[in-house]
Amino acid sequence: MKLAVIGAGAVGRSVVELAGGYGHEVVAVADSSSAVVADGEGGTPGTDDSGIGVDSDAVVARKAERGIVGDGDPADALAADYDVLVEATPTTLDDAEPGFSHVTTALERDRHAVLANKGPVAERFGDLRAAVDDSDGEIRFEATVGGAIPAVSTVEDIEPGHVTAVRGVLNGTANFILTRMAAEGLDYDHVLAEAQDLGVAEADPSFDVDGTDAALKCVILANVLSFGAVDDPADAREFTLDDAAVEGIRDAPGSALRLAAEDGRTVRLIGEATGDTVRVAPRLVPENGTLAVSGTQNIVQIETSHAGRLNISGRGAGGPETASAVLGDVGRLE
After folding, report:
1. 21-57 pLDDT, tens per residue?
2. Catalytic residue ranges
3. What one-character DSSP code corresponds to residue 238?
4. Which letter, b or e, does each residue of 101-137 get, where b requires 16 or more Cβ atoms within 10 Å of its Cβ?
5. Rounded CA gap, 334 and 330, in Å?
6. How far, in Å, CA of 78 to CA of 105, rounded?
7. pTM of the model
8. Among 311, 314, 320, 272, which Cα is nearest to 297's?
9. pLDDT (tens digit, 9 = 90+) per residue, 88-102?
10. Residue 38 CB: number of other CB atoms within 10 A?
């Protein structure tokens, strides 16, 4: 498959680096201010000798050294001759732009789109479904929930109508902080500063510690459950972030974790989605239970009608990890 990768952060760069190993060719890459597009002839800076694909090593090196991926306009990548557009720009809320327009541009050209960007799937799922209905292209978005964990495809394989709920630990930063608070008896501010020093938490950690990131993932799962359980999309309930009940971990006191430990329990930020509700909040869980994953690990529990409870855990973030989910989706479109 020929890929156009829009977004050159950790995930986008990893897709560019790993695509060849999955049998795919990257023909265009864009960041917010520049692009490189293979010209089919070779010899153009940033393309490989055949001209069929871009020179992945050169693109990644140029981004690291100069902060750009090429000398072209980002619009050139959207207009390139690709089979699948990989949307890996930063997540935005409300109108989910520019990611939403990138995806619909691909669909209007009857191309496929694979998203690592949560915004369009969480905030405009109904609009995306309508765009798919008018296109010969499809969308996939495994990477938007749990990084490398195959949560969406597992729900689809079981069939959403036979899944009663999906819950789990879906934010590594919040989980790292709660794990350290419980293990070392430290308070929130101390562990947050440690997490920022280690690069586990952003300088502005609001998206993670306020529960927004986990809530977006649960909203996406709720839409998968809701739309997947009906024959007519008009009968499905569409969820957005406004439908989620969200409580973060800023106010989790160290004393609460110490008291929980005396009772054989601990605290984790748990998100849960059904076809009717979405909620995220700190919850008490057994200290040695399945949901008590530690550090930056994530876990997804799927409650099914006939197969009981399924647990899938693994790395919920990271460039190569999330890129593996993106490229898995590309493979499903072949």
Report:
1. 999 999 999 999 999 999 776 555 556 666 679 999 9
2. 217
3. P
4. ebbbbbbeeebbbbbbbbbbbbbbbbbbeebbeebeb
5. 7
6. 8
7. 0.93
8. 314
9. 999 999 999 999 999
10. 26
